[in-house]
Each structure stands twice: as C-alpha cells, then as structure tokens.
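Task 17 of the worksheet. Students: predict the tertiary structure of the chain below and write it out as structure tokens. Keep your answer in the requested format; marks are given for formatting as well as content.
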Amino acid sequence: MTSRRQFLLLTCGALAAGEAVAQLDPNIAAKREAALRAAIGKITDGKPIRTGKVKLQVPPLIDNGNTVPLAVAVESPMTAENHVKAIHVLTEKNPQPYVLSAHLGPRAGRASLSTRARIADTGRVIAIAQMSDGSFWQDSVSVVVTLSACLEDGLI
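Model answer:
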C-alpha cells in the first residue's frame, strides 16, 4: 500500500523528470554535427583534408572527461619552406567543438604538443594540422567517456 507521502513524492518526481526531458533540445546531435562541420570549414576554408602525417594520442576509455590527456605530433621537417603553421583539436560531442588551436612556426623545432582537455561525451576527437604549403592533414580517435565533463547550458 502506498502512503499519501510516497504518492506525492512519486508524482512530483515524475513531473520534474518530464519537465527536465522536455527542456533538452531534441535536435542536439544534429546541431553538434553542424557546429563541428562549421568549425572544420572555418579552419580549412573548404580545402580538402588528407589523412596522415598527424598522430593524435588520446586514451580510448576515459573515466573522467574533465582532464583528458592528449598529445598531437605532426611529421614535418619544420624548416622555413616546410613547416606546420597550426594544430587544431576538435571534438564532435562538446557543446563547443573547439578544444584548442596552437599556432607554430619553423622556429618551434618540432610540431608536437601535449595538454589536458575537457571532453563532454563519447565520440571522436579530431586533430587537424595546417601546413605551410596550404595543405591540411588529420587524425581522429574514437573515445568512450564514462563521466561527462561539459554540461549543456543551452549552448551548442
């Protein structure tokens, strides 16, 4: 037998859960995909991206998305004629797809970086290298996040 108090708690909980679900945008996946395409388009200006030269290292299983170690290395002699101009890291599931952009030059010596990033949810992490000759190269890694880092604030 359900008491009056239990009934009221269950009813309020069901109404609150329904309200929370109603506030989530049903098109969030499509909006995130569009934001990722727009970010990549802004970086590359519509130029083709080739696979290779870039090596992205991210753990495939992430317990906590708040501090995810990642490293990017690009094959380049780093000379004045042939060097990496920029390295961009993006994710497909963060509210904002940009994770970082690092601008380099031939005096950097080598085209590599390592840092920690916030990753919201299970999906792809993408690294894009912009070369001095105008070409773009990429690598991507699929990751599984068990505890999300970024919360939705109505922003994408």
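Marker's comment: The mean pLDDT is 87. Residues 84 and 131 are 4 Å apart (CA to CA).
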